[in-house]
Fold this protein.
Amino acid sequence: MTGSTYPINVFWSDEEQSWVAEVPDLAFCSASGRTPHEAVAEVEMAIKAWVHVAQSSGRELPEPSPRPSTQHSRRAVRA
């Protein structure tokens, strides 16, 4: 299922002292950055890599979660 849109959660991590962007629908798909924008840019590359590896190994891609009606701290990326 290419062309799917996966929600991204972005939050500050005190532990990592950086912004973290995670994709709950894709196991272990996350990235961090000095700014929210940098974290999202990094996770966009991680999504593409995750999808490529899954497709190359014949794994089925998960369906994206429905997006909430308010998206103050979420962004979606097309895979």
DSSP finds one helix and four strands in the chain.
